[in-house]
Amino acid sequence: MAPPPSRLLAVSPAGEDGATPAVGRAWPVGVRPRVLRGWEPPETAYGRGHRGVDLTAAPGTPVRAVAAGRVSFAGRVAGRGVVSVELTGTGDPPLRTTYEPVRASVTEGAEVGAGEVVGTVEPTGSHCTIPCVHWGLLQGDVYLDPLTLLPPWLLHRGPSRLLPVLGIPLPR
Questions:
Q1: Residue 64 and residue 99: Cα distance in Å, rounded?
Q2: The pTM is what?
Q3: What is the distance, to the nearest Å, from the Cα of residue 75 to the centroid of all Cα atoms in its chain?
Q4: What CA–CA distance (Å, rounded) separates 48 from 51?
Q5: Ramachandran angles phi, psi of 147, nearest 5°
Q6: In a 10 Å sphere around its CB, with 0-12 CB exposed, 13-18 middle and 19+ buried, how is residue 107 labelled?
Q7: Which of 19, 52, 7 is nearest to 145 (CA)?
Q8: Rounded-to-integer distance, Cα 52 and Cα 30, Å
Q9: How many angstroms from the chain centroid is the CA of residue 33?
Q10: Phi then psi for 57, rounded to 5 degrees?
Q11: Grouped pLDDT means (10 residues each) for the chain, 172 residues
C-alpha cells in the first residue's frame, strides 16, 4: 500500500543521474497523449510543485500499466480512484507508478504486464481543467519524473524517415 502523503519526505529529479531505468513499454493512456502539465519538483518536501504529469484522457479511456509489475494499491484516496503498480526488477525499494482518477479493474496483489489495462478514467476527480489522468512515479518516499520511464522511441514525436544511403549500389 502507498504510504500516506505525510510520510512522503523527499522530492528528487529523475533521469539526471540515469538512476531511473527506461522500463516503460506503453503510455498510460492513448498512443502519445498530450502532456497538459509536466513534472515540477518542489524545492522542499512540502513545497509547491507538481509531483507527476497530467495526460489528456477522456472519461472511460482505458488506463494501462506502463511496465510489468504488481498492483500495490487499488482503491479510493480522498474520493478519487487510484491504482499503484510496483514495477518488476527496479530495485529495492521498487519504482511505483500511480494513476488517478481511475476506476480500477484490477485488485491489490494482481500481476500486470506492460500495456495491460488496470482501469478506466473516471468522469470526475481530476484536478485538470479538462479530463486528464495524473501519472506519478515514486521510489520509496522520493517522487520522480514518470516520463523518464519511457524509452526514447516512445517519447519522440513525428514519423520515422528513411534517408538515402550514399555509395551503396541499388539491388538488381
A1: 9
A2: 0.79
A3: 17
A4: 9
A5: -65, -20
A6: exposed
A7: 52
A8: 17
A9: 12
A10: -165, 125
A11: 39 47 90 90 82 95 97 95 96 96 98 97 88 94 91 72 69 69
